[in-house]
Amino acid sequence: MTMSPSLPDNDRPPPARFAFDRWTWQEIAYLLANLPMAIAGFVYAVFLVGVGAGLSVTVVGLPLLALGLQGARGLGRAERGRARRMLGVRIEEPSPMGRSRRNQGFLTWLWSGLKDPVGWRALLYSFIRLPWGVATFAVTLVSLFVLWPVLPYLARGLTNADRAMARGLLSPSDELERRIAELESDRGVVVDTAAADLRRIERDLHDGAQARLVALAMDLGLAKEKLDHDPEAAARMVEEAHGEVKVALQELRDLARGIHPAVLTDRGLDAALSAIASRCTVPVTVTVDLETRPAQAIEGIAYFTVSELLQNISKHARATHATVDVWQTAQRLMLQVTDNGRGGADVTTGSGLAGLTERLDAVDGVLVVDSPQGGPTTVTAELPWRDRADNGAERVGAG
User: Which of 69, 178, 236, 332 is the most buried (most CB within 10 A)?
Assistant: First the structure.
């Protein structure tokens, strides 16, 4: 369970004493407001469970229950706000529901809504609050006229129970819940990215190498027909076909390099990044300071991140020089690409940076862009460091 962080000194309730200071009056007001809030929450919980369970055999029952659990989240949010303002309890907000599922279909949304732990805990909180709300309202109201001298201590004791109840049921269950929500969102990004890559490969094969090979087959067929009666023309056509074969092979190599370059597999990031830097339209200085090689997946993401950034520099930056720096710090792989171009790069302008941000986020990475108008531009990427599983980490440059 995620506990609320420490409060600043001016927000932490002072020790209870025989004095009616600001905190004491806030606690008394909170206890008196427990009854109407508890009645509203109890009625909502009973109605939702009764109607949702009763109609669960119909088409509308389960969707109604899922929507009701989202409403319970709203009640929990209101109670966290009330506890924060009046009791000084800082409870972290749970992960929002539906962020990663809004485009994944009705059944996915329905199942996710029905098993939402935050909604169910908020509903349980609303259900059990009625007897507690009645008790705290009655005790506080009577104490205002009968037990006035000890009311500060009494209010502190009762609101401490409220604080514990709010932390126990209205906090995120634990860090795992938050990470699950993030990973579910990232999974959707990875699936979409993989599908887009497959479509790109299919399009490149269809429009490039495949079309060229079809034309090559037709040319060779014509050359075969001319071989007997016009050998010179046939020889010219074969020579042209030979040139087309070379072009087709180069296109296939470029396509394979876009999937996973052999130099990266064989020699690591230093050689692979130097290779793509040599194809950039501006001079690039590459510095790789790694004693070992990360996992292949991380290495591949690092490679394609630098490749995309260098392509952006070639197309948009109007730079005369760029640098690529790669190093390891603690358990993170750090990349930094800088250029002296015109600046103004933004993840929202469709320059490919938004896609890179999503790809890095899918593996717990971070992309930070610093690109004022007029330049220079510095893009820093941070990836988790994961060692290779095959006999430990490999030395950089080992074949």
Answer: 69
**Cα dist from 20 to 136, 139, 144, 253, whole Å:** 18, 17, 11, 80
Inside any domain, residue 348: yes
Which of these, 69, 25, 66, 27, lies nearest to 44 by C-alpha position? 69
Q: Is the domain of 36 the same as that of 140?
A: yes
61 close to 54: Cβ distance less than 8 angstroms: yes
DSSP 8-state code for residue 387: B
Q: How far apart are CA 331 and CA 292, in angstroms?
A: 12
User: 136-139: which pairs have CB atoms within 8 A and are 24 or more residues apart?
Assistant: 136/31, 136/34, 136/35, 136/162, 137/31, 137/32, 137/34, 137/35, 139/31
Single residue among 130, 147, 173 that ends a domain in this structure: 173
The helix (H) or strand (E) run that includes residue 78 is: helix 61-87
For residues 84 and 206, state if they share a domain.
no
With a CB cutoff of 8 Å and minimum separation 6, the contacts of 377 are 317, 319, 338, 339, 341, 343, 345, 369, 370, 371
Range of the domain at 341: 262-384
Torsion angle of the four alpha carbons 80, 85, 86, 88, in this order, in degrees rounded to the nearest 10: 80
User: Do both 235 and 303 map to the same domain?
Assistant: no
pTM (2 decimals)?
Answer: 0.45
- Reported as a pLDDT band with limits 50, 70 and 90, residue 174 is low
Q: Which residue is listed with tokens 């999503």?
A: 358
| Domain's final residue, options 216, 231, 259 | 259
Both 70 and 213 in one domain: the answer is no
pLDDT in tens, 92-149: 777 666 544 444 567 777 777 788 888 888 889 998 999 999 999 999 998 888 888 8
Q: Is residue 178 part of a domain?
A: no
* Whether 153 contacts 16, CB under 8 Å: yes
Within a domain: 17: no
In angstroms, rounded to a whole number, what is the distance separating the alpha carbons of residues 72 and 95? Answer: 14
**How many angstroms separate the most distant Cα atoms in the chain?**
122
Question: Is the domain of 364 the same as that of 289?
Answer: yes
* Residue 331 one-letter amino acid: Q
Question: Which tokens in the block code for residue 210?
Answer: 């495949």
Overall number of domains in the chain: 3
CA distances from 252 to 211, 249, 262 (A): 12, 5, 13
CA distance 357 to 370: 14
